[in-house]
Amino acid sequence: MRRSQLALLLPSLLVLAACGTAPEQRTAPAPVVPVVSVAKQAEANLAPASASIVSGRLVLVPDARGVHITGTIGGLQPLQTAAFHVHERGDCSAVDASSAGPHFNPANQPHGRNSAGAHHAGDMDNLRADAQGRVSVDVRLPAVTLGGGAATDIVGRALVVHANADDYRSQPAGNAGARIACGVIRATR
What we know:
- The chain is mainly β and 189 residues long.
- The chain is 10% helix and 29% strand.
- A seven-stranded antiparallel β-sheet has the order 5-8-9-1-2-3-7, with no helix packed on it.
- The longest helix has 18 residues, at 3-20.
- It catalyses: 2 superoxide + 2 H(+) = H2O2 + O2.
- Residues 1-17 form the signal peptide.
- It comes from Stenotrophomonas aracearum.
């Protein structure tokens, strides 16, 4: 091939090569759906389960990202680390609180840690009791709502304290052990 032929052919090849390159695909970020609560406040009165003496009272208030849970739980062993979750059903009638069902998981996610990665909507970080077996609860649960009946609504569900720490890995519930306290979340305002 002569240089003159190559000079004529080269621009054509460049045009063809450019046509064969797919344009860069950009995916728009998923829209942020605001978390909206209808109830202004809810409470859960935890009662002992599985022959424990663990009990407490928790107040739930919506905030900008979800729900803020505060209150006190007592009756734990001194310095005990215990798992804490929202469970699917607001039924604490079984002696072992099994009537509360599995963890609240409307998005069908794997079990994990609330503060990192994929997790159930009802997964929360472990509680740590003080030397007297009490916990001052101050937890933020993101992406859930209080009242209104949305898939993310936790009113009418149960808060459960477990005997062991959540390992945040084992499926489907973090190997957290027996349910030692249970309380139904009820809207108060």
